[in-house]
């Protein structure tokens, strides 16, 4: 008979492969009777050097699983030590760690035992007990088992701050190849149920604040990359579809890592860490910078560059768009300048209401001048004509850009700026 400590060693270790656990976005005030609260910013966040959130007690209910996803260490055919918590054991562990101030909440996932419905009922039992018996106000992220009954999705959303149904792999063909029991259409159906549940609850709460919340921190998902031949273009396109259709808060990309005695269908090499990083950058371009998925790569070059970030690559292949005048260009254009982040775009738009920005002003905003100078016009700066006209960088200054340059020349003459 295993002790709780022994189970914890196995099931906390088994959970580390699920990256979909950042606790951003939830706000739940303590009610003064129970314990804990969670806040939208800051206190629920703690990241390991490789970017993963560790402030939650992150465990599996069990690593037994009836499915045989080839890339997963918990698959039924895997020869590993298995363990299973009872819902009460997870409840007690969560409370215990919370009271010791080790964690701010719980991330609970599970292998699939008996059926999606049965597994989901077990996960819900943990969250429901924490909320209703112990009045736990901390953050709860529950994994949602694709294909479980809609009634269970609804109930899970009542108790959890965030739900996530993992898309697992970029395409249906990838699932056929490596996760034969899983179907993209079933996973997306569960995402749809979460999306609709949240929409309805949010509508209801506009009418009365007494209406119950449903997954107030929304839903996220995880995608393993590099286990199949799917390209970055396919991955980004898939991500764009999921964000647009189900209003996901986050997609987490996890580079595939090979393991001992792995199935022959899997690659022998780990996915480069930089690929994962570039996918996150591409993801941000879609969510915060107004880029469309199809702009980030091309049909002929569907892979993200490992040496340059995707925004810089886009800028270098679209010389007609530059240079951008930071004192006149619309926000949408500023967002496309490599080296200027979306927060700095807001600052630039605010500051230029009062005075024209120089390179020194940008430097004070911590803009990397080395990255941006070839793409912008500022009050005291024109990009080098050799760069603007260079055949291998910014080849041609398009008519609109030339107009900006002429206006700048006029302004320089008036002010004596150089
Ligand atoms: S269903 Fe989940 S836990 Fe089970 S083998 Fe597939 S990925 Fe692993």
Structural class, from secondary structure content? alpha/beta
Q: Please tell me the total number of domains.
A: 2
Query: From the alpha-carbon coordinates, what is the Rg to the nearest angstrom?
Result: 25 Å
**Number of alpha- plus pi-helical segments:** 16
Distance between the termini: 79 Å
| Helix fraction by DSSP (H/I, runs of at least 4) | 40-55%
**How would you write the strand order of the largest sheet?**
1-2-3-4-5-6
Mean pLDDT: 86
Sheet bearing the most strands, described? 6 strands, parallel
What does it look like?
The chain has helices at residues 4-15, 87-99, 116-133, 150-159, 172-178, 184-207, 232-246, 273-288, 293-296, 310-316, 331-334, 342-351, 359-364, 369-372, 385-389, 399-415, and strands at 56-60, 105-109, 139-143, 162-164, 219-225, 250-255, 324-325, 376-377. The chain is of the alpha/beta class and 418 residues long. The strands form 2 sheets. The chain has a 6-stranded parallel sheet with strand order 1-2-3-4-5-6. Strands 7-8 form a two-stranded parallel ribbon. Strand 3, helix 4 and strand 4 form a beta-alpha-beta unit. The longest helix has 24 residues, at 184-207. It is globular, with a radius of gyration of 25 Å. Residues 39-52 and 387-418 have low confidence and may be disordered. Iron/sulfur cluster binds at residues 65, 67, 69, 72, 74-75, 111-112, 179.
